[in-house]
Recover the amino acids of this structure.
DNA sequence: GCATCTTGTCAACAGTTGTTGACTTTCATC
DNA sequence: GATGAAAGTCAACAACTGTTGACAAGATGC
């Protein structure tokens, strides 16, 4: 009982925590190893280097996310819960935050965009049907997340209040109700 | 005629170009000096260091932006033109892109958020009136910019087309038409 | 002509980054 | 108990970061 996790597992946990919260470029391998109480050399040994460790935190991020086929109302609920809200541990930021934090990185930016940006968009497309509305819906999701979490704007971030949820819903449903007039 | 610009001016121009396009952390002083064809030491001499040079590219970014008091329709036009579209040189990214690119930086992130995020929000608030709608409007602006420029999502980025503008308008006006029901 | 200030150049600095190879320890298997 | 693979430790590496001080050239003022 109370199995002590292996060095590899502790490294992975610390990496997901730190990389997601502060960004790939802003975390050094020494800090990472210190947080995991592990020798630095093990990062290269187990994951091939800093970049490999970061990739390991990315690959299974979507594993437990399942979007049910449902109406617009329920979809808004699910999307907000899954992508915008922070995970259960209360420290690691949401998937969207991580994406936005690392999307511009010189080393891993392209990978993050391809792996999660496109993947998330495809999921929403399959769920919503029309690609246009899916893209707009995702843009709304991104905008609110950026405004609240990245820029910390006043007037957006009132998590848990009914007002915040009403704002969210209004914009989401505007995105979902949009139909363009060109060929389909 | 054809005045050759001083080293200080070339440095400032190269800094605005490179910092805004690739982010503060992803540009080294050596690359900066090389692009401006200037000795590295002059960065510290003239601007007090890399950070000071970056700040110099920030301070006057809002100098030429003036939002007129107008209706919702014209406001959408102005906002899109001023904040989302790229400047005239066609290379330097928009103000929003620069904000989003550097908002998470460990060194200058807080400054960028405070100087431009808050400032832009205050401008929109003064213009729109209701802080709630201004925040939502700004979130919509951010979301579209992120989706198009940062994540390069398909389905959003069709600049110059009527369809793209229609999407923009629909979401913007949804943001502007929102009213919350709590106390004001 | 001399002094002074600006403008620019050069080489070196100390600090941090990610990575690696040699080493010891641990532990299971024969 | 001997063998050998796995797990972990240590010190050093080369590459890069931003910054600085000493120095030279040119313009300006008296």
């Amino acid at each position: 009982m109370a199995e002590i996790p292996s060095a590899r597992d502790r490294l992975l946990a610390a990496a997901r925590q730190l990389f997601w919260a502060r960004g790939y470029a802003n975390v050094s391998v020494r800090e990472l190893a210190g947080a995991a109480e592990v020798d630095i050399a093990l990062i290269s040994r187990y994951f091939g280097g800093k970049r490999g460790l970061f990739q390991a935190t990315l690959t299974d991020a979507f594993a437990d996310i399942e979007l049910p086929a449902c109406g617009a109302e329920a979809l808004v609920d699910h999307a907000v819960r899954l992508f915008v809200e922070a995970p259960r541990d209360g420290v690691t930021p949401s998937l969207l935050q991580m994406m936005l934090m690392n999307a511009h990185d010189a080393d891993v930016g392209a990978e993050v965009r391809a792996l999660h940006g496109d993947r998330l968009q495809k999921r929403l497309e399959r769920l919503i049907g029309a690609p246009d509305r899916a893209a707009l819906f995702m843009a709304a999701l991104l905008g609110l997340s950026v405004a609240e979490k990245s820029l910390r704007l006043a007037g957006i971030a009132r998590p848990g209040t009914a007002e915040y949820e009403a704002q969210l819903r209004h914009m989401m449903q505007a995105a979902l109700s949009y139909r363009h007039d060109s060929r389909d």
In short: Residues 6-7, 38-39, 41-42, 45 of chain A lie near DNA strand D (CB under 10 Å from a C1'). The two ends of chain A are 59 Å apart (CA to CA). Chain A touches chain B through 48 residues (CB under 8 Å).
